[in-house]
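Notes to self after the call with IL:
- keep both proteins in one doc
- input above output, always
- annotate only the second one for now

Protein 1:
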Amino acid sequence: MQSGIFADNKQKKNEKYKINAQKLQKIKLKKVKMYKYIRLEVRWLCEYDLWNLLGVRKKIWGLMEIGRNEM
């Protein structure tokens, strides 16, 4: 065991590290939540865009069918 000033400094350092570790954990949690939210957002956008693309594709196919029938 160390005595006096050294022991106090060590304890202070440990407390500082603990506080920093807690802060990091909180930041990580926030990041994870944001990441989940962003992923959901991206997934929704992808699905929406896919439906739009499908709609556009159907229109193009429809136009091609009409063109084929006229020929």
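Protein 2 (the one to annotate):
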Amino acid sequence: MASSHFVIFPFMSKGHTIPLLHLSHLLIHRRIKLTIFTTTANRPFIAQFLGWPTDDPNIIDLPFPSQIEGIPQGIESTDKLPSISLFPAFATATKIMQPHFEQALENLSNVTAIVSDGFLSWTLESANKFGIPRLSFLGMNNYVGAVGREVFTNRLFSGPESNDDLITVTGFPWIKITRNDYEKPLNQRVPTTGPHLDFMMESTIATANSYGLVSNSFYELEPLFVDYLNSDPMPKVWCVGPLCLAEPQPPMVEARVHHHPKWMEWLDLKLNEKQSVVYVAFGSQADISKQQLEEISKGLEESEVSFLWVVRKDDDETNIVMKDLEERLGERGMIVREWVDQIEILKHESVKGFVSHCGWNSVLESICWKVPILAWPMMAEQHLNARMVVEEIKIGLRVETCDGSVRGFVKADGLKKMVEELMEGQNGKEVRKKVEEIGEGAKKAMAEGGSSWRTLNELIDELQSVRNSKESKGESLARVRAPLGTKKAKGLIDLFCGIQLLTGLRVGSRASPWVGLRVGSWAQGISRCPCSDDNVEK
């Protein structure tokens, strides 16, 4: 039988690409043949990260769509979008790459599986055409998935009047959330249709109909939520992380040794001075107002704690605030305006705290290098991540807002207070102890014989066994997901109803969470849940 051959297809964003490249390291170590799909502008980063030649034939470029309304020509990564509001248009435009992807797939031999980002939902249709199992990679934890399923299937947002009222999560009664922990339109009583909702629902449907879900987490971190998700007739969750602990290839290690940026020299200086540093970063896509930037600057300055602040936004207002701060601080603080190797920062011995937006990659990196978090979520699922960090696994504290709400304005004195508490206070000591304990668990999970190490081996073996079995019988490799009792409409593909999953809406006495919808047209003009009797075969 042929050896395993995996296709890896990351979404065009560094935060989504890097974990899948870490996964690629693990697969290479297991002697799995890889073919990686990307776009022309993203190829150099991927090649450098993997230590491959830029023209390596195992990296296949697809032409990224041009002339997307509102998006400047040449932008092929969300990191460079002028505004996060353009994300739905960017993500939807990736569908135009589907014919090119399928043409390239046709020329590949013996593909065992496709691991594609959950945002690339259309790759499921491509995988099914070629009879290849598709695994969805979602860059979030299982806590978010489990809480979300309870919230939407039980319609928990239909009750409270205020967006800041605490709501008890039905299946996990110790967890309290608010509507403001979710983005619009998901936090509305009846979500309004539009590009954002359409995109999320299409991703949800495709993931639910994939062979499995690859999770960048480890079982010991959230066993209750992994077990909850795997108890349902949904794709199995395979926890193979934290992927940031995957050892890079020698060329990448060598590049890190020879590259010694100014911020690293500054951290070395602080270490020699025996000064603890708080690292501040809010991701590459958060929109922070000038007024809030000024309060952050003042709070960090008044805390008298040394800090390294990475600022990704480059505009006149931001630059004015940063320049003023630099002039006042001298050597006590450093501001970086470029992409940084965050892992190298968190690994540095001088870094003792992280003011973070709580993107899941950042949370995992904090865990792995045992740096406690001051949680300041900005967007997407980050507010739920922050609840997990502070309330569930207790490895961080949370910033104080003026009005106590989860999306409120943060004044300088509130930030100063919590930075000092994280770095020097009793609560800071407690979360530091906890993150050290969980960090050790993360290393054990990824080490040979650990839970994530075993899970990845089991996934590879299962996929290879499926392929061998299908090949011997001359059958298609794709596994059709259709739970018992579901009736399948003629000429339609059985898909999980994203509307019900997201809204909890049910229509008809025999409404099922599974529904037949035409691939590629499901989102056009849908204003109600189609899980009704006239959508199933009699």
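Annotation: Confidence is low (pLDDT under 50) at residues 477-538. The radius of gyration is 23 Å.
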